[in-house]
Amino acid sequence: GAVVSQHPSRVICKSGTSVKIECRSLDFQATTMFWYRQFPKKSLMLMATSNEGSKATYEQGVEKDKFLINHASLTLSTLTVTSAHPEDSSFYICSASRAGGRYEQYFGPGTRLTVT
Amino acid sequence: AQKVTQAQTEISVVEKEDVTLDCVYETRDTTYYLFWYKQPPSGELVFLIRRNSFDEQNEISGRYSWNFQKSTSSFNFTITASQVVDSAVYFCALSEKGGLSGSARQLTFGSGTQLTVLP
User: Fold this and answer.
1) What is the C-alpha separation between B51 and B53, in angstroms, rounded?
2) Which residues in chain A have Cβ-Cβ distances shorter than 8 Å to B107?
3) How buried is residue B44: exposed, middle or buried, by Cβ count under 10 Å (0-12/13-18/19+)?
4) CB within 8 A of B88, min separation 6: which ones?
5) Contact (CB, 8 A) for B45 and B23
6) What is the pLDDT of residues A51-77, one digit of tens each?
């Protein structure tokens, strides 16, 4: 159990366009979801934390108007990169946690975004 | 503030050698959780182990073992008889005690150690 999916796995978009990444918990209800960003050969950096039905909490330095996060249901969170630019190219990974889940986080397979 | 340090950026060993990946952490919390993840070239994070701050027992799982020492704030990971398939980036991570009925807090990751096992 505890499977998290992400869609798409890879996306290439043109500069100035927006792209949406979905994160789904397939077999459990995720009360909390996290979005991380990873640059090549670098560590994962937390972007934001979202609790179902609440506004996301963004980490310092992350533009909330650029990276829109929605956690509308207990199984789905979305990250929308608005007006994407080449510097937004990165590997985005989500994770999900459930209430009573012994504080475990379950990671999605990641989405590689390339902005041309 | 929490911090995780993995001083070894890259390690290269020959197959069948043992290798230890170091992890040192900082936290003001008395209750916290430590993790190790493996990230192969595909990018997907593979969970290896979770340890809470109250449990200092070392753990062994097959060729993997972990040494948790609170006195030195370290949580080191040893692979015995390494194999080529062990080649990956390994991340150590730290999390505070969870909120909301056991849900997780965000993870603070170390910078990762790239392990290359040569045939």
Assistant:
1) 7
2) 34, 44, 46, 95, 105
3) middle
4) B38, B39, B40, B41, B114, B115
5) no
6) 888 889 999 999 999 999 998 889 999
Read off the DSSP letter of residue A75.
Answer: T
How distant, in Å, are the alpha carbons of A52, B26, B105, B107, B108 from that of B2? 25, 5, 12, 9, 7
The values of phi and psi at residue B56, to 5°, are -95, 5
What CA–CA distance (Å, rounded) separates B32 from B30?
6
Q: What is the pLDDT of residues B74-84, one digit of tens each?
A: 999 999 999 99
Residue B112 contacts A, CB cutoff 8 Å: yes
CA distance B4 to A45: 12
What single letter denotes the amino acid at residue A59? E
Tell me the C-alpha distance between B59 and B43, whole Å.
Answer: 26
- The residue among A18, A34, A21 whose CA lies nearest residue A78 is A21
Interface of B with A in 25-84 (CB under 8 A): 33, 37, 42-45, 47, 50
